Amino acid sequence: MNVYRPPLDEFRFLLETFGYSENVHSMERFAEFDLDTCTDLIESFATYCVDVLLPLNEVGDKVGVHFDPEARSVTMPEGFRDAYQGFIENGFGSVPFDPEHGGLGAPFCVSTLASEVMSACNKSFSMCPGLTAGLVDALEANADEVLSAKFLEKLVSGEWTGTMALTEPQCGTDLGLITTRAEPEGDHYLLTGTKIWITFADHDMADNIVHLVLARLPDAPPGIKGISCFLVPKFLDDGTRNPVFVGGTDHKMGIHASPTCVLNFEGAKGWIVGEPHRGMKTMFVMMNAARLQVGAEGVALGEASYQNALAFAKDRRQSRSLDPKKQDRDAAADNILVHPDVRRMLLTVKSTTQALRGLVCWISMNYDIMHHSADEDARKKANDLVALLTPIIKSYGSERGFLNVSEAMQVMGGAGFTQDWPVEQYLRDVRIAMIYEGTNHIQALDLVGRKLPTGGGRLMRVFAAEVQELLTPALADERLAALAQPLAKEAQRLSQTTMELGAAAMADNEVIGAVSSAYLNQFALVTLGYIWLRMAKQVVDLPEDDAVRRSKLQQARFYMEVVLPEAGTFAKRVKVGKGPVTEIDVELL
Amino acid sequence: MNVYRPPLDEFRFLLETFGYSENVHSMERFAEFDLDTCTDLIESFATYCVDVLLPLNEVGDKVGVHFDPEARSVTMPEGFRDAYQGFIENGFGSVPFDPEHGGLGAPFCVSTLASEVMSACNKSFSMCPGLTAGLVDALEANADEVLSAKFLEKLVSGEWTGTMALTEPQCGTDLGLITTRAEPEGDHYLLTGTKIWITFADHDMADNIVHLVLARLPDAPPGIKGISCFLVPKFLDDGTRNPVFVGGTDHKMGIHASPTCVLNFEGAKGWIVGEPHRGMKTMFVMMNAARLQVGAEGVALGEASYQNALAFAKDRRQSRSLDPKKQDRDAAADNILVHPDVRRMLLTVKSTTQALRGLVCWISMNYDIMHHSADEDARKKANDLVALLTPIIKSYGSERGFLNVSEAMQVMGGAGFTQDWPVEQYLRDVRIAMIYEGTNHIQALDLVGRKLPTGGGRLMRVFAAEVQELLTPALADERLAALAQPLAKEAQRLSQTTMELGAAAMADNEVIGAVSSAYLNQFALVTLGYIWLRMAKQVVDLPEDDAVRRSKLQQARFYMEVVLPEAGTFAKRVKVGKGPVTEIDVELL
User: Fold this and answer.
1) Last residue of a domain, one of B277, B301, B334
2) ipTM of this complex > 0.90?
3) What is the dihedral of CA B430, B435, B437, B439, to 10 degrees?
């Protein structure tokens, strides 16, 4: 049983709320993509996901991928190859890419919203086009004409798929420890080494697979500044097999239909992307979009879990309302939606999911502006917001997504724990999002150690100005003031925390490690408050009995009064500093 | 890979901290059980768990139970029957029971601490003796001599096992909706109906299974006041099969080696326990101990996850310390224990796990006092504390346990998500504890709706007096004051919240439903603070370089400064009241 349906109205509402027509459609690149065109595009993409990918979700989980140690190859569960072929035949793999390379050229914000539906329908499947898209981004930004001709069009069309080959047994977070070697030979290099946890490193859905590989040249300096980036295809131009082989697949708690592989490079031919020793720069192009996508996975599985929990709750009768007026005396028990705690759980999931989706929309729209706006100031500002908010959506989106799936399970009681409903799979599938694409603490270090200091705090000033610009009129609007006041208070506290943290970190670098995770969560809660106020402002002029207006204002209230106060706890944890974790005897742990 | 070892030193430390010798050993019933005897008993029990049950944990998860629809019977994974037979041959099933019925007569606090090891080694297995123990409790309190002779000794020895058959398709939380019927016939009854989610309703580990069944007599009034309680064995005295059959087993996210069954009563013979229509009273005897046990499951899997995460962390090198003085220049990277966030995660898990275990010990010791003390006042006070704190340990123990297993997984990064380590299984196994034995919100309703009003707030006054008695000297002791101050502040806030909630609930009953879950968490955080202060007081006179003293004081500090502040968020949520969840259009959810 899975009742999931794509929240198409929400997507359109968000594009309107964040000013799609003025901010994105107005750019030359997106002249053909008016709001109706975009929503039609999302709808046709979503329909394919629901019709073809969703039915494969459960079988993918149950059957999983098959590794053949003789052939050193991976076979997908039945139906996945056909689903992938249909996916690319419909052009769904190339929605956001440059028409010059065969892409549709749609806005990134549109493809990002649509991708949520793919994750919700089949998270395992979604990771394959997701990685391919990341590789296309990296090549569009970094590859020369030769490489582009060799690889780009096949990747854009989806005929070939991509991977990101970073992690090695001795290093995941700390890529400076990479030992895979690349020896020059003619116009290319020969790569030798072992990578682990490589998603979709092998499968039978497409005809060729291209690995983006981090490795060291013979003259590389040690550490992160000696990493270069290479493209290594499974099959070479002449059809011969390049010696890069899967050594095994991992058995995981979830995403069973996403092959997670050991990948052995045995003198495989590769081509360098970008400059020698500057591989991290290339890789980061890929990682930023991927991090946003991972945050969106939390939204996707939170939404799908919410819908299933709500369907269960609508059907379930149990106990009596504590308010005698609400009791249904024609039945033996009341519908559980009368119980305030059931509503609390559902509203927690819904209000955070909708706000996180709003944040995904806002960030991805700034992505479009940063790349395609004719206005340099607009590009700069958009770039600052994307840089600042990407670690937040990745970390808080994945963490809140995990908690939301668990909360939805709680609404369903024992039923949610069984395989009769999809929520238990969602819980297993969503958990990895807190770990991969940089663990959530790495996001926090990125936020505090890299993004906050940039330009003497410029990114935070850009964000704070956006918040203030929204707050000032809202505080003066009696219809919005009750929502704006708690946000104003928490935004003020966040400024205070940020200043204090900056001063503490200048005196002692280790403070960042100790409190950045708490700081990120504090920041995230304020950010989602900002998103809620924007959504509230968007509906406040509608007639009072309008369903969208009522729903949004009720959720916004719940968010501000029930969810947002947790920011205070995180602020206290930042204030405490490093003492409780550094002034210990580590051997007594 | 699973490095788990029973925390035997912790068990002894807690028995000392909570005054085992003065409070329990001093009672006539436990004269033979001095502290050394108890710790020896726990050790031999724990050794059996580690040697026999732990090796079956992974196979139990992978293979699961087998249901044969022809025979309508369940087969356990290989090795489980032998492990169970060895378990009862060693007398481990009868540790806390009355010697009059063949039990060992050990204190409940001892068997409860020992049970943690069984859950940690094999949670699925542990549920079978756990349910049997609950049934023995119910029968010791309620059964007449005839029934005792018929069933009790076989259950105490573990030769037969027990179940709790409550839930039906239309009712779990709301047992008033039960429809299973019991028709009188001679000295017994014939039961007809369907139960679902019956744990260990069938298996091949023991020779007979006795179901404690809630059902209605023909003259039963409707609702919860018309429920009676029956014993229904799988096999009758003459060896014939009683017509009670398993109709299927559920497929679940975790506890795969614990059969969860549909159970059909097809005119099965049963014997009534206790008075007609008073079945809930009998069942509640069973449920209180079971609820404590469920909270302890969160401790067990939190502890096991912690130990594995710590072992991983000790071995893993990644990145550099942010403090140059801590960098290990002989290696390519530092051990991850230098990273403050890794310590933060480990300390979160450890400090909450140790405090929850302390709470389990304190409650279970009060259990012994309440049943066996010669002093009536002591019995009353102990009874009040058990009643008040049982919903807290069940709810917060299971929720924190779930979060702790997840946090331990986060320490391990991708490795924790794979089946190479046991943590992913623990996450799947522990999640059910938030749902069964009364969902966590049911615990909150029990706390606020039933326990707080008892005797005009007497239970809370007993608890508050305990806290104050500990706080007053601690605040005046310069070695403890820094720990006592945050607790004093939060204890004061809890009193305030309790008073305000009482007043609000009197005016409007629905408030309880809306905020009781938040209130329970606030209460739990203060309770764990109390436990930490008791543990700190226990060690404060030891030499300053004593390892136990250092470890406990460091953890206590972490708890008070980093964990406890969350109580403030929950207090705010209680204060907000019911508006955000009741003043909504429920059809817009």
Assistant:
1) B277
2) yes
3) 140
